[in-house]
């Protein structure tokens, strides 16, 4: 998992939920860091990206668009899940238009995180 979150508390909570369920993860604190980590990683390194939408330096929507435009197969196929407090239909639409596959509303529900990740990964295979 590539976990992208600029809020330290949200990062810790998500990290706890994910690692407690056996996930290994890399962390990025903004979209630019996420983009750089994804770009440096060998193709297929990550099964999924959990991407905060509102971040400094580079927001999650811009990072997602840039990842989707990369010239590598996994950039087009990797599930990217938005994590945001903005959960209106318009926000979900913007996430989809940026290339995100799903949309999780904050505060994050641990069961919903696990369910969404499981669905995205099983759909990918």
Mass-distribution shape: globular
The helix fraction, in percent, is 40-55%
Distance between the termini: 16 Å
Q: Total number of β-strand segments?
A: 5
List descriptors:
globular, single chain, alpha/beta, five-stranded parallel β-sheet, about 120 residues
What is the element layout, followed by pairings?
Elements: E1 2-4, H1 8-20, E2 26-28, H2 31-40, E3 49-52, H3 60-68, H4 73-77, E4 80-84, H5 89-98, E5 102-105, H6 110-124
Parallel strand pairs: 1-2, 1-3, 3-4, 4-5
Helix pairs in contact: 2-3
In short:
With 125 residues, the protein is α/β, with parallel strands linked by helices. It contains six helices and five strands, in the order βαβαβααβαβα. It has a five-stranded parallel beta sheet with strand order 2-1-3-4-5, with helices on both faces.
Task: Describe, in plain words, how this protein is organized in 3D.
The protein is α/β, with parallel strands linked by helices. Helix content is 50%, strand content 15%. It has helices at 8-20, 31-40, 60-68, 73-77, 89-98, 110-124; strands at residues 2-4, 26-28, 49-52, 80-84, 102-105. Helix 5 (89-98) links the parallel strand 4 and strand 5 (102-105). The mean pLDDT is 92.
């Amino acid at each position: 998992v590539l976990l992208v979150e600029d809020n330290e508390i949200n990062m810790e909570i998500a990290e706890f939920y994910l690692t407690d369920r056996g996930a290994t993860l890399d962390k990025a604190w903004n979209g630019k860091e996420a983009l750089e980590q994804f770009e440096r990683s060998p193709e297929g390194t990550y099964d999924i990206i959990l991407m905060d939408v509102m971040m400094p330096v580079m927001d999650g929507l811009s990072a997602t668009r840039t990842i989707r435009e990369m010239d590598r197969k996994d950039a087009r196929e990797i599930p990217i899940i938005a994590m945001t407090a903005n959960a209106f239909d318009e926000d979900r639409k913007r996430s989809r238009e940026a290339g995100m596959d799903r949309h999780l509303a904050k505060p994050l529900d641990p069961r919903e995180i696990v369910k969404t990740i499981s669905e995205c990964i099983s759909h990918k295979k």
